[in-house]
Protein: Adenosylcobinamide-GDP ribazoletransferase
Organism: Pelomonas baiyunensis
Amino acid sequence: MRLFWVALQFLTRLPVRLSRFEPAWLNDCVRHFPLVGALVGAVGAAVLIGAAQCWPAWVAAVLALTATVMLTGGFHEDGLADTFDALGGVVTRDKALTIMKDSRIGSYGALAMGLSLLLRATLLAVLAARPLAGAAVAVVISHAWARAAAVGVMVTLPYGGDIDHAKAKPLALAVAPRNFVIALGWCGLLAAAAWAWGVPAVRLLLAAGAAAVAAMCMRHWLQRRVGGYTGDGLGATEQLAEIAVLLAFTAAL
């Protein structure tokens, strides 16, 4: 539970208070990132279902997306924008890392964030027009599995930035593979619950595959351009994996 509270404090704006803190906890709390994602997704799903009772699907979708962005403080969206600003152009590794640290947003970052928000809002609107129970499951799973994808990138790559200037230094150290195994365990439990709820197994397998492909593509891109992961790169991984999972759930099969 202690590691879960650390993960919740790190990934959201919820006012979590800890009596003490050990840097190693931040390294190990990544095992619970999917659980925090499920919580964020549950808030988004609740808003989507509630709003769909009063407004058209696209309004409910924007409100649900707004709720999740507010809950996380745009944490992952910021990483997406910084990553695409840094890696969208042809620059050296050192220049790319410098761009990532720049708080200003450029054309690549603005395009990436705008298209991401537009695509997620559209996909949520598609879900809101369908049976709402299935839509809620899709939203929860998309947030949980997307954060597991980021953990997978973290475990399989070294840190690619300057460790001494890392904002969350413990996460710049080696993350034990057991943390990824536990994260996958949370994903498995969510998949089992969704299957019991009536979601077809083929849909869940397609969504899991989509998240894995997004993670592998981001892993390859980060390794090739900066030699490892960065915090911003993990945020971009979460965003792209979230989109991939939503695409899998809305695809016509």
Summary: The mean pLDDT is 91. The chain is about 75% helix and 0% strand. Residues 40 and 68 are 6 Å apart (CA to CA). The radius of gyration is 17 Å.
